[in-house]
Amino acid sequence: MVIKPRVRGFVCVTSHPDGCAAHVQQQIDYVQSKGPINDGPKKVLVIGSSTGFGLSSRISAAFGCGASTIGVFFERPSEADRLGTAGWYNTIGFTEKARAAGLYARNFNGDAFSDEIKTQVINAIKEDLGTVDLVVYSLASPRRTHPDTGTVHKSVLKPVGTTYSNRTVDTDRGVVSDVTIEPASEAEIADTIAVMGGDDWERWINALSEAGVLAPDADTVAYSYIGPEVTWDIYKNGTIGLAKNDLEAACARIKEKLSPTGGRAFISVNKALVSQASSAIPVVPLYISILYKIMKAKGTHEGCIEQMQRLFAERLYNGADLQLDEAGRIRIDDLETQPDVQAEGTAIWSQVTTENLEELTDIAGYRAEFLKMFGFGLPGIDYEADSEPHRPMI
């Protein structure tokens, strides 16, 4: 099968298995080029491990720290005549490389919100590892079936309390336009918190702890984003922001639970990057396109793997300083939030139009990064050649 990208809205509905494997290899190469991470974790559970920050965390743990890893994800498997999702192929690529390097790697494809998957993972830890010393929570899902009630909660990307209007970009057509979004209802706010807040992270930590598979000095980290003021009404102060506040409240409770035995819990605030989640948020793709232009020119641009390798090597481990902010969060968005970067971004934001989009922003880089998530545009891959779509999980 010759596989080409087919984009619908903010999702690419095809993925290239060989391209995904090449993308994973690129990230492995980067981590290995930075050298080993001292005092890093050795037995790691990554919840939401198949794409984005979760995948890069797993790669950093395995190939930077030499860690055994368990990955939890929810992806569509490939079939004889049907492509799997990019996360499915990413995980196969990672697992092949990890095992070839002599590293333990085990995978669970299913609903991470469910009690069933938690039980399966706990049993695997007992059988194979005994305990885990790092739990990364990097789950991004549009919906959640609550394990207690069976209620299906669906998240929304909306402002709270007032209508929001700003500029956005159609990344396919390159058209800059105005967008207006009505405020979320109370039910929508509650649903978004239920999906994207801290309840499930806390449930994972409680389940692992109660089962005796959490090392006494284990760390756990979850990921968040704050962003610039231009996005706050739709992000920081919107439904997502309220969910992230709930995540931080959960972090405080987890920290209190773990600290008596030497464990730690953190929120890492990461940089704005192209992802399936960020592509769906109005305004954010235009901001990212501007940000990429500025940071690439300054030589400070980072992708997921650069962010996660730096989180492990320069904040969490390697004898590094956590450099916590006033709220106790790790700030790996520190290069994005530099005053000169934000000042340049604000100036470009007020000037950008459809006509000068290519000149003032890195919309081309945005599109390239978007396609790379699905395995397209990687060097060394013949995209005109037949590729076998069916790749069973190993």
The CATH architecture category equals 3-Layer(aba) Sandwich
Structural class: alpha/beta
Quaternary organization:
single chain
What percentage of amino acids are in beta strands?
15-25%
Give the full name of the CATH homologous superfamily. Answer: NAD(P)-binding Rossmann-like Domain
Radius of gyration, rounded?
A: 20 Å
Major β-sheet profile: 7 strands, parallel
Low-pLDDT residue spans: none
Number of domains: 1
Distinct helical segment count: 13
What's the CATH class label? Alpha Beta
Task: Give helix % range.
Answer: 40-55%
Mean pLDDT rating: 95
From the 3D structure, determine the CATH topology. Rossmann fold
Order of helices and strands: EEHEHEHEHEEEEEHHEHEHHHEHHH
Strand order of the largest sheet: 5-4-3-6-11-12-13
What's the number of extended β-strand segments? 13
Spatial shape:
globular
Distance N to C terminus: 22 Å
Description:
This protein has a single domain, classed as NAD(P)-binding Rossmann-like Domain (Rossmann fold, 3-Layer(aba) Sandwich), CATH 3.40.50.720. 41% of the residues lie in helices and 16% in strands. It has 13 helices and 13 strands. The protein has helices at 17-33, 52-65, 86-100, 115-129, 186-196, 199-210, 239-258, 276-279, 284-298, 304-316, 339-351, 357-360, 363-372, and strands at residues 7-8, 11-12, 43-47, 68-73, 105-109, 132-137, 143-145, 152-154, 164-170, 175-181, 214-224, 264-269, 330-331. The protein has a 7-stranded parallel sheet with strand order 5-4-3-6-11-12-13, sandwiched between helices. A two-stranded antiparallel ribbon has the order 1-2. Strands 7-8 form a two-stranded antiparallel sheet. Helix 1 packs across helix 3 (86-100), helix 6 (199-210) packs parallel to helix 7 (239-258) and helix 9 packs across helix 13 (363-372). It is globular and about 60 Å long.
